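subagent[fold] <- orchestrator: predict structure for attached chain, return tokens only, no commentary.
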Amino acid sequence: MPSDEVGFRILRGRVLTFVSEPQGRDDHGSYRYIENGFVVVDAHSGKILMVDEWRDDQPPPWSDAKIEIIDHRPNLILPGFIDPHIHFPQMQVIGAYAAALLEWLNTYTFVEEQRFGDEVHATRIASRFFDELVRHGTTTAAAYCSVHPQSVDAFFGEAEKRNMLMVGGKVMMDRNAPPGLLDTPQSGYDDTKAGIAKWHGRGRAHYAITPRFAITSTHEQMAMAEALAREFPDLHIQTHVSENLAEIAYANELYPNYGDYVGIYEKFHLLGPKTLLGHCIHLSHRETEVISETRSVAVFCPTSNLFIGSGLFDYERQHERGVRIATATDVGGGSSYSMLRTMDEGYKVMQLRGQRLTPFRSFFHMTLGNARAMSLEGRIGSLEPGKEADIVVLNSSATPQMALRMETCGSLEQELFLLQTCGDDRAVVETYVMGKPMKSALAA
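subagent[fold] -> orchestrator:
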């Protein structure tokens, strides 16, 4: 039936959702798994109404003629994936060859981002960007736009068309970049404030105060970011820290009296529960303690860290010290939009450090864990009544290789590990945003 006539959607399949962070391989209390389950969505509000076990001897709830039953069996139904660190203007620099971070930025990224002053270009890339997120099962992301207000409008405008919950903001950067990418302390403040007024709270949009990183902002601009954080204390803040050794040395050279890299953000009062700190690879003991004490979030970006050769994130050290950890793609330093591919590379990073990342913890991070890291767990990240129905459906036999391996998978844990290790956008059967099927619509 036409989608505008649907009152309720009932999605059938194997339902998996997390209720807490897994504490070990056998922590079955950390998730809810229903082998023959269903999720009921109010098609008008986009909210989940019920999650339960299907019974053939019991008629579906809401015996309204406008019910649409979508049978996804035997596939897995999970909350939509969440990506807390991604660069929307970097779609066309993925896979660009460079030896290290600063070379990569100057040779490719800053060149490409200058094109986002063109509204037509920014709008075209925004459409392609959201297509990729939907194809890969990602329903929410925290994105860096370019320095241009046009890029912010393109980003949030496209998100609004698709009714997707997004966090994003214009980068503030007034030095160490080409002239076409520089703002000033005052214009960065003014443009950010105008973006907040235009977009924050409009539909599902969340604006983020976004000083790109200390290297590209003067003391005066960091003070302006601090002023914005004081004026809008409920907003997210996103930036980068301690990704690369040369970057760290340069940051400390530019801010010689701040103690360390994290200390720069600390002195400008930019740390807190809604601060997303990209990378956090080479942290001192003091920096780790400050991030933990302020409840800031360390965002682990494994595909990017491996591709650019920045280093190996020390997950266990930060976890043991109470640091809140998120996991993200960091496209375009990251080489895939897939959170499955991201967690596969995260597993390998931890293997190299002699650490273990269980399949259940991986899927926790992609869903409820990242929702918590972004302070959005009241709305998304799990399948339960009242939550917004952002949902992904996964096929563990999506490729011939995966189907053959599934013949010998004897547990849910093994199946999740197969999805993480071999899955990509082909494993994503459908992506629902507020209960509306979106991936299948791309091919329509």
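orchestrator: received. Logging for downstream: The longest strand covers residues 67-79. The chain is about 35% helix and 25% strand.
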